[in-house]
Design brief:
It is built from one helix and 16 strands. It is of the alpha+beta class and 230 residues long. It has two domains: 80 residues, Immunoglobulin-like; 99 residues, Immunoglobulin-like (Sandwich). The strands form four sheets. The chain has a five-stranded mixed β-sheet with strand order 1-8-7-3-4, with no helix packed on it. It has a five-stranded mixed β-sheet with strand order 9-16-15-11-12, with no helix packed on it. The chain has a three-stranded antiparallel β-sheet with strand order 2-6-5, with no helix packed on it. Strand 7 and strand 8 form a beta hairpin. The N and C termini lie far apart (109 Å).
């Protein structure tokens, strides 16, 4: 299998060559397919089969296969696709009131345009930073890098965001997840420690009070015994 990345209209040649370890195979029938659809017009040389394609739009993208049938069946698959977008696999963690910057990249290929979306339930809503300038700032850092800045994040900003890159042959998306935490979250371990210290100090104080009372009671009983003896 081979992945072939295309961002604009082009002519491409796909070629299959039979490896020497399969040279013993005879009477081979070769079929080119796009998905399950058979494609004709095969150019053949010795142990090699190729097909030329004109990719004008995304309807011509997809998986193409070269299938050799004989004593065995051998195939090679070519995946024609638009450039992939790199988002971020791990969630971005921020606290309420902070500013968050999300980044999407398209390596080696420059998109025609970038669009950012936020997920609201089951639908994606395009982010318009000109209408919500006090909340979002979108910057195209370079031809293949875009930033989404979210100002003063709140719990409502928690969720999934998408960056979409438009190429001549189609669109590609990257996924990012934002996790917004309350300011109380980092304080919880500290508060737990403080609570433990307070409990220990209280126990020590109560123990000391109990010990002093016990000592006073013992002294009182001792004095009472002495008086009784007298």
């Amino acid at each position: 299998e081979k992945n072939i990345t295309l961002d604009s209209a082009t002519r491409i040649e796909l070629s299959c060559r039979l490896d020497s370890k399969y040279s013993h195979l005879k009477s081979l029938r070769v079929t080119w397919k796009r998905g399950n659809e058979t494609i004709r017009h095969i150019n053949k040389t010795e142990n090699s089969w190729s097909i030329q394609l004109m990719i004008l739009d995304n309807s011509k993208l997809g998986s193409y296969s070269c299938v050799l049938q004989g004593e065995e069946e051998i195939s090679a698959v070519f995946h024609l696709q638009v450039p992939k977008i790199e988002g971020k696999e791990k969630p971005i963690i921020s606290y309420e009131g902070d500013t968050v910057v999300m980044t999407c990249k398209s390596f080696d290929y420059a998109p025609i345009a970038w669009t950012w979306y936020v997920t609201n339930g089951s639908e994606q809503i395009a982010i318009n930073d000109s209408l919500l300038a006090d909340k979002y700032v979108i910057n195209r850092i370079s031809a293949n890098v875009t930033h989404l800045k979210i100002l003063k994040v709140t719990k409502e900003d928690d969720g999934v965001y998408w960056c979409e890159a438009a190429f001549e042959l189609g669109k590609s998306i990257g996924k990012l997840k934002l996790k917004v935490l309350s300011l109380m979250v980092p304080l919880k371990p500290f508060l737990a420690i403080v609570a433990e210290v307070v409990i220990i100090v209280t126990m020590v104080f109560l123990y000391e009070m109990y010990s002093k009372k016990k000592e006073k009671r013992a002294e009182y009983e001792k004095e009472f015994d002495q008086v009784e003896q007298l």
